[in-house]
# Entry
Amino acid sequence: MTLWAGRFSDGPSDVLWRYTASDIDRRLLPWDVKGSIAHVSMLGRTGILPEAEVEVIVGGLEAIAGEAADDDFEWQDGDEDVHTAVERRLGELVGGAGGRLHTGRSRNDQIALDLRLYLSDMALDRIRQLHGAVRTLCEVAESVGETIVPSYTHLQQAQAVPLAHHLLAYAWMFLRDAQRFDDVRRRLEVSPLGANASGGSSLPLDPAVSASLLGWSEHFQNSMDAVGSRDLAAEYTFVCAQSMVHASRLAEELIQWTTTEFGWATYGDEFTTGSSALPQKKNPDIAELARGRAAGAIGQLTAVLSLQKGLPLAYNRDLQEDKVAVFGADDLLAGTLEALPALLGSAEFHPPAPSSWVCALDLAEVLVTRGVPFREAHHAVGRLVTALVESDRRLADATEADLLAADERFETADLELIDPIESVRRRVSPGGGSFESVGEQLAELRRRTG
Ligand code: ARG
# Structure
C-alpha cells in the first residue's frame, strides 16, 4: 500500500507505477535509516512522542540498518521508493508503533536529507580516491627521474621540461578537485529535517536537535529552500564533471603518448587491450573510456541544472531526477579514479629527446642578462631561426657565426645553451620546469595528501 492511499478510492495504475516509482534511491537505504533514527529521536526529546515508543521505533530501524549492512533487506514491488520500503519494513518489525515515524516529517525533507548524508559520505570517498591519484602521479613522477620532454603550447614544442613536471600538473588539478569535494561537504552538512512538506509543522519540532543527532551543527533556516533547492546536487555534479574533465585530459595525453608517432610510453599488458583483427595492437582502452565517460558527466551536469530551471517552489516531483544526474556523474568518476591511475602506474616512459628548438628562449634570455630589451632579443633569435630554417638546419646546427650574424652581443659560449637538458638545468624561476621545482612539488603534494 502507498503512504498516501487514504485520499484515493482507486489504487494506482500499473502505468503510473512504472513511470513514477523510484528504485534509483535504493542505494540511499542506510542513509535513509540513519536520518529516520535522528528524526524519531528528536520526536522523543521534544516530547512529541513518548520515549518508550521512540525506543521501539529506533530498535526496528536499527534492525533494518543491520539488514541493509548484510545486504539482505528485501525490496518489494509495492515499495514506491526507499522511504516507503523502510516504513513498510518497520511496520512488519514493530507493528503499529511504526506508523508514528513520519510524525512531523514529509518525504520531501526526508529525501533532501538522504541526499545530503549520502553525498557527504561519497565526497569523502572521492577525496580519498583523488588523493590516491595524486600519490600515483607523484610515484610515477619520481620514477622517471631526470627524463625530459618538450612542453607544448599550441601542440608545438615550446620549452624543455622534466617529464615529472608535466605529470605533476595533473596532480595539482586532482588536488583542487579534492578541495572542491571538501568544500561542498561543508554546505551539504546542513540538516533539512523539520522542514516537513514545505512549511514546517504545528508540532514543536526542534531541527537543532535532529541536526546535532546527525553530528551536524547547522540546520535549515527556510523550509521552502530546504525541500525545494538542489543547488548542492548541481555543485556536487559539477565537481564530478570537472574532475572527469581533468581525468579526460590526462587520458588523452596517455593515449597520444603511446602512439607510434609520440613513442613516449608503453603501458602494462594487464591494463591494455588487444584487437580482434589487428594482431600488433595494444590499445589504451581505459584512457579512451575515461575520455568518453567525461561526456556523460558533463551531460549529467547539464541535466541537473536544467532540472531546476523554471521550477516553482517548493518540492516538485521533477526533483526525483536529481539522483539520476548526481549518482550517474559520481559513479563515472568513482570508476575512472580507480582505473586511470592503474593504467598510469603501469607506464614505462621512453620519450625521444626534445628538438633543439626548445632552447630558443634561453638564447633570448641570455641577451636579456646583457641588458638587451626582451623584444630586441626575441627579434634577434627570430632572425637566427629564420636563417637556420632557410638553410634547412636546426638550432643545434647553429655556429658562432650564425649567432653573431643575428646579434653581435651573442658570445661563443652561448652555443652551449643549445642543449635541452642544459635548458632545464638552468631554469631557476619558482614553480617552473626544473628538477628543483619538481622536488619541491613532490614534497608539498605528499604533505597535502599524506
Ligand atoms: N522519490 C522522491 C524523490 O526522489 C521522494 C520525495 C517524494 N515526495 C513526494 N511528495 N512524492 O524526490
Observations:
- Strands lie at 148-153, 156-162, 190-191, 218-219, 265-266, 348-349.
- The two ends are 51 Å apart (CA to CA).
- The CA atoms of residues 143 and 191 lie 46 Å apart.
